[in-house]
Amino acid sequence: MTNTYILGIESSCDETSVSIVRNGYDEIATVVLSQMDTHANYGGVVPEIASRMHVESITIVIEECLKKAHMTMDEIDAIAVTYGPGLIGCLLIGTTFASTLSYIYNKPLIPVHHIAGHIYANNIGKQLKFPLIALVVSGGHTELVFMKEDYSFKIIGGTLDDAVGEAYDKVARVLNLPYPGGPLVDKLSYEGIDTYSLPLPLDDNSYNFSFSGIKSAVINTSHNLKQRGEELNKANMACSFQNRVVEILTKKTLRALKEYDVHNLIVAGGVAANSGLRDSLKEMCIKNNIELSIPEIKYCTDNATMIAAAGYYAKKIGKQADIDLKAKANDELN
Ligand code: KG4
Ligand code: ZN
User: Which atom of ligand 1 lies closest to the CA of 301?
Assistant: First the structure.
C-alpha cells in the first residue's frame, strides 16, 4: 500500500496547531501552540487577540512540524484544514494559509468540519469500528451522532441552548474559578459531595440536551445563599453539577446505543477529558457490552492531528476545496 501523508491545520479557537498523519491514523509529528495563558487574563477567549496570535505563529508552527517529522512539503500528499465552525477571524488564518500552501505546492486542499476532526481523534493509533454512536461534547457542541461508515454523519440529537463545555465554563465563573473552568470544576467535584438539588437537565425521550436551566439553577442558588448571608460550598456545588450533567449524558447515550443497536461508542471534544464522564461511560459500557473509545487527553482538546486524520477520510470520499475555500463560523457537520 502506498502511504498518504496529510498535513492538518487547526486554528478555529485558541490553539494554533499543525500535524502530519500517515494513512489517517499514524501520527508522524504534531505541534500545538496554545494561547490559553493569554486569554486566561481576560476570563475567556478574546477573538481579536486570538486571530492576531494565529497570524504571528502559524508559519513557525508549520516549519516546526515539518522539522519534527523530518519531511518537506514535497512529501505531503494533501493539506487538510478546519474551515468551521469556530471564530471566524481565527478560521480565516488557517484557511488562507492552507489555500496558499495548496496553491504554491500544488497539493489538494481538503476542508474538514471541526467536529469531524474531534470524532476522528478516536482514529489516531487505531481505527474506528462501525456502526458507532459518537457523543460529541465540547465548548461549542453537544451532539449524538450515528455513523454507519467512515465520514457519514447522522446527527440524532443536540443541545437546544448551551454546549456542555460552555455550561461548565459559566458555572466555573460562578464558583470564582479562572478560565478555562471546565477542568477545574471537574477536579473540584471530587473534593465535594452531592448536596445541592439541581434539576436533571432535559430528562425527556428525545436525544436533545439543554444545559442553560441547570446553569441558571447554579447561579440562582448562589445568589439566594448570598442574600441569606450563607456561604456556597463550591466543591459540593461542583459535585452536584457534574453528577447531573454526567447522568443525563450517560442516560441519553445509552438509549441511543440501544435504539440504533450499536455496540461501539466513541467520545469526542474537550469535555471528553472530564473524569466523571469518562468513569460513568466506562461503567455503562462494561454493563451493556459496548466497546468504548475515548481519546487520550491531548487529543480531546483542539489539535491538528485529528484534523489530518479526518482529512484522510474526507479525501477518500472526494471532498476537495478550491483555492477560495470559505471559512464558516457555523456549519452543519458533514
Ligand atoms: O473541544 P474543545 O477543546 O474546544 C471546542 O471545540 O469547543 O473544548 C473546550 C471545552 C471548554 O469548555 C473546557 O472547559 C472543556 O472543554 N473541558 C472540560 C474539561 N476539559 C476541558 N470540561 C469539563 N471537564 C474537563 N475535564
Ligand atoms: Zn474543539
Answer: 3
Count the residues in the chain.
334
- pLDDT digits over 190-221, tens only? 999 999 999 999 999 999 999 999 999 999 99
CA–centroid distance, residue 269 to ligand 2 (Å) = 6
CB within 5 A of ion ligand 2: which residues? 138, 302
In this predicted model, what pLDDT tens digit does every residue of 38-83 receive, in sequence order?
888 887 788 888 889 889 999 999 999 999 999 999 999 999 999 9
**DSSP strands (E only) in the chain:** 5-10, 15-22, 26-34, 78-84, 109-113, 132-137, 142-147, 154-158, 264-268, 291-293
136 and 118 Cβ atoms separated by less than 8 Å: yes
Helix (H, G, I), strand (E, B) or coil at 209: strand
In order of 34, 43, 69, the CA distances from 39 in angstroms are 10, 6, 30
Q: d(Cα 277, Cα 275) in Å, to the nearest integer?
A: 5
**Gap from CA of 301 to ligand 1 centroid (Å):** 7
* 5-121+299-316 belongs to CATH 3.60.60.10: no
Ligand 1, atom 4: closest residue by C-alpha? 139
Amino acid at 284: M
Distance 324 CA to ligand 1 centre (A): 31
Cell of 285: 459500557
CATH superfamily of 129-294: ATPase, nucleotide binding domain (3.30.420.40)
**Nearest-angstrom CA–CA distance, 319 and 315:** 5
Gyration radius (Cα) of the chain, Å: 20
Omega before 199 within 30 of 0, i.e. cis? no
Looking from the CA of residue 180, the nearest atom of ligand 1 is 14
Residue 304 to residues 15, 22, 275, 298, Cα–Cα distance (Å): 9, 13, 23, 11
- Its pTM stands at 0.94
- Ligand 1 neighbours, Cβ below 6 Å, are 13, 138-140, 165, 168-169, 180-183, 186, 269-271, 273-274, 301-302
Domain boundaries defined on the chain:
5-121+299-316, 129-294
